[in-house]
Amino acid sequence: MNDTTAQPKLELTVSRQFTSWMAEHGCSLLFTTYQTGKLFLLGLKPDGKLSVFERTFNRCMGLGVDATGFWMSSLYQLWRFENALEPGQRHNGYDRLYVPQVGYTTGDLDIHDIAVDRHRRPVFVNTLFGCLATTSVRTSFTPLWQPPFITKLAAEDRCHLNGLAMENGSPRYVTAVSRSDLADGWRDRRRDGGCIIDVPADKVIAEGLSMPHSPRIHDGRLWVLDSGNGFLCTVDPATGAAERVAFCPGYARGLAFLGPFAVIGLSRPRDNKTFQGLALDEELAKRGGESRCGLLIIDTRTGDAVHWLRAEGIVSELYEVAILPGVQRPMALGFKSEEIRRTITVGPSEPLH
């Protein structure tokens, strides 16, 4: 008798015009699936069909993109990926070859959002310690800022700090699930304890959200995913008032903008207490639907979902999504194949003195 059980597979399906939207805007997409430890790079093949490239990194989550590459967090490391190709050069049909060039060992900090500041330095949300931090060659991290209600820098995940919005190359806003100053205290206020904090002002500017994620500044406005309620919102920093722009049929984490379009990551909530009892479930039931995993593209001018990608099978949770402008078909190197041994790039010569 054969007792082997078939492994669940991954199946990605897209709306009819998803690839046309990518071609029209000349971009590719990245997203991470920390539950299955996968980094996905979506582009277009020469025939216009979707190109899907994936690499395995244990618990990969945050992504921070800049002009030449991106940062990505994994279980206990922070990786810098650099494009190894020259302009116009291709590698096996791909126009970007991202190499994990530098890695920092941070320990398991539960790193969430990552951004690149005006000094080209990675700034990340250190969720375990409830602070913003950057890398160090001597220590696991260098603290940069912590919320005014957190009285001690401790590995206790007190408020579940998670999201980071940058403005002019500096941290401007962050999101937290609650204002708790107790170890793991954020779980007690999942439904309505969420807040947005103005970093330079050390001030909470919005409250009453449900497990907010992914604050972003775009087109002069502050955007946020009110994940527990299921909405993409704009927030008035002066009053804290949130205006709902679009419903998200899944637990929303990961937000990127391209012109008037918002690209949102969706997850199917885990069957545990962290995701139970949220208003999102009630909203889905009211609309006669179930939570989805994948990507949703919203036209922010109308609030309409104009394109989508759905992930079925082994992947049920996403964390971050990012846009690669001007990239047609990206790929990346990982550590499970021999190709990384043979990919060697040489920089310009420099004098000894």
Number of strands: 26
**CATH top level of the domain at 103-322?**
Mainly Beta
Structural class: mainly beta
The residue ranges in which pLDDT falls below 50 over 5 or more consecutive positions are 1-5
Spatial gap, N to C terminus: 72 Å
How many helices in DSSP terms?
3
Structure, explained:
- Helices cover 6% and strands 45% of the residues.
- The model is unreliable at 1-5 (pLDDT under 50).
- Strands 1-24-23-22-21 form a five-stranded antiparallel β-sheet, with helices on one face.
- By secondary structure, it is mainly β.
- The termini are far apart.
- The protein has three helices and 26 strands.
- The longest helix is centred in the N-terminal third of the chain and has 8 residues, at 18-25.
- The protein is globular and about 55 Å long.
- The chain has a domain at 103-322: TolB, C-terminal domain (Neuraminidase).
Give keywords.
45% strand; single chain; mainly beta; Neuraminidase; 353 residues; five-stranded mixed beta sheet; five-stranded antiparallel beta sheet; 3 helices
Fold topology:
Elements: E1 10-14, H1 18-25, E2 27-33, E3 38-44, E4 50-56, E5 63-65, E6 69-73, E7 77-83, E8 96-105, E9 111-116, E10 122-126, E11 131-134, E12 142-145, E13 161-167, E14 170-176, E15 194-198, E16 203-209, E17 212-218, E18 221-226, E19 231-235, E20 242-247, E21 251-258, E22 261-267, H2 279-286, E23 294-299, E24 304-313, E25 321-325, E26 330-332, H3 339-342
Parallel strand pairs: 8-26
Antiparallel strand pairs: 1-24, 2-3, 2-25, 3-4, 5-6, 6-7, 7-8, 9-10, 10-11, 11-12, 13-14, 14-15, 15-16, 17-18, 18-19, 19-20, 21-22, 22-23, 23-24
